């Protein structure tokens, strides 16, 4: 038989206080007029006895279970997942909450099952996350309680946390302008569906708007724009080759994501051109591989850890009236330099 679990009465007895007084101290309730010495005795007694509060009993009194559901489509198995989940976990832990994570893999039947299972456990709220930044339909079962959308928006008036893609577009364009690039900045990654359908992507149009507005304010415009069937390395490779086939090549290239930039690097290397001596390259996302390229790829980082943290904070502290946009910091690596003379 294991050691009997310590009770609140045991803690109070060892601290020399009433059970009510010990409970007020351990629960951090306002109104306790106990001395700092009494507080110290309670905490020391709880530690000595290994006291753990009865969460189930407390939940019956407070109607709170100190648990949060994190439901995603395929976030948990993507290369960017760690940040989103780590930020949410850290924020939950700091508030003495536990995060329950379910990944649906896009299976609607399983999503309904997972959501019902978590709601049956009376979670205090739900973070509903998406892999790609997009508009989505929120399952009706979630609309009856606290929910925050992570990396997504919805037709429903729900609080949401998003990366600030438009500001990131301004950031990468400004980085090139500050290095002296002006008239020969090209862009790789135009994609009609991503730009026009918010259920596919919110990032594409926002990034493009930020780039164009910044260049326009500087009295210039994109020198060339390459359309891609998808934002994958092979499409970045083909787009870069098409730009190099033009009579005048660009001095700098903005890629709409890092995977396109990986392909552009390959095409430039095969053409015997050096980055950034011959052409500068800047991008978005900060894929883990970006820092390992040679030279390292300058890119606006998706702030997934901060986003996950903010989603939990909003869930527990109260809804945000407007979408919360989290800045995407520029990772200033060696792929950007002044234009070749």
Automatic annotation (TrEMBL):
CDD domains: HTH_LacI, PBP1_sucrose_transcription_regulator. Keywords: DNA-binding, Repressor, Transcription, Transcription regulation. GO terms for molecular function: DNA binding. The keyword Transcription applies. It comes from the Bacteria. InterPro entries: HTH_LacI, Lambda_DNA-bd_dom_sf, Peripla_BP/Lac1_sug-bd_dom, Peripla_BP_I. The keyword S-adenosyl-L-methionine does not apply. Residues 6-62 form the HTH lacI-type domain. PANTHER family: HTH-TYPE TRANSCRIPTIONAL REPRESSOR PURR-RELATED, LACI-RELATED TRANSCRIPTIONAL REPRESSOR. This is LacI family DNA-binding transcriptional regulator. It comes from Micromonospora cathayae.
């Amino acid at each position: 038989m294991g050691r009997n679990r310590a009770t609140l009465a045991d803690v109070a007895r060892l601290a020399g206080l009433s059970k009510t007084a010990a409970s007020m101290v351990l629960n951090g309730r306002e109104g306790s007029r106990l001395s700092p010495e009494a507080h110290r005795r309670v905490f020391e007694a709880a530690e000595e006895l290994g006291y753990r509060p009865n969460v189930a009993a407390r939940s019956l009194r407070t109607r709170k279970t100190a648990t949060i559901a994190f439901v995603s489509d395929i976030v948990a198995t993507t290369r960017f997942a760690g940040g989103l989940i780590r930020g949410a976990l850290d924020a939950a832990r700091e508030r003495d909450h536990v995060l329950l994570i379910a990944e649906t893999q896009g299976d609607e039947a399983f999503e309904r099952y997972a959501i019902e299972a978590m709601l049956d456990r009376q979670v205090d709220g739900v973070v509903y996350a998406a892999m790609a930044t997009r508009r989505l339909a929120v399952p009706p079962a979630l609309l009856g309680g606290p929910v925050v959308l992570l990396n997504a928006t919805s037709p429903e008036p729900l609080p949401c946390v998003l990366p600030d893609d438009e500001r990131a577009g301004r950031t990468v364009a400004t980085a090139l302008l500050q290095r002296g690039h002006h008239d020969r900045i090209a862009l790789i990654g135009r994609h009609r569906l991503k730009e026009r359908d918010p259920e596919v992507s919110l990032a594409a149009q926002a990034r493009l708007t930020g780039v164009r507005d910044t260049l326009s304010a500087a009295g210039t415009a994109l020198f060339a724009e390459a359309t891609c069937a998808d934002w994958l390395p092979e499409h970045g490779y083909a787009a870069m080759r098409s730009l190099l086939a033009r009579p005048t090549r660009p001095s700098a290239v903005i890629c709409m994501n890092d995977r396109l930039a990986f392909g552009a690097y390959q095409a430039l290397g095969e053409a015997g051109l050096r980055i950034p001596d011959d052409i500068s390259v800047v991008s978005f996302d900060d894929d883990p591989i970006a820092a390992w390229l040679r030279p390292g790829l300058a890119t606006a980082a998706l702030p997934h850890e901060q986003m996950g943290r903010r989603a939990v904070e909003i869930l527990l502290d109260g809804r945000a009236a407007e979408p919360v946009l989290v800045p995407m910091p520029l990772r200033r690596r060696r792929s950007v330099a002044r234009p070749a003379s």
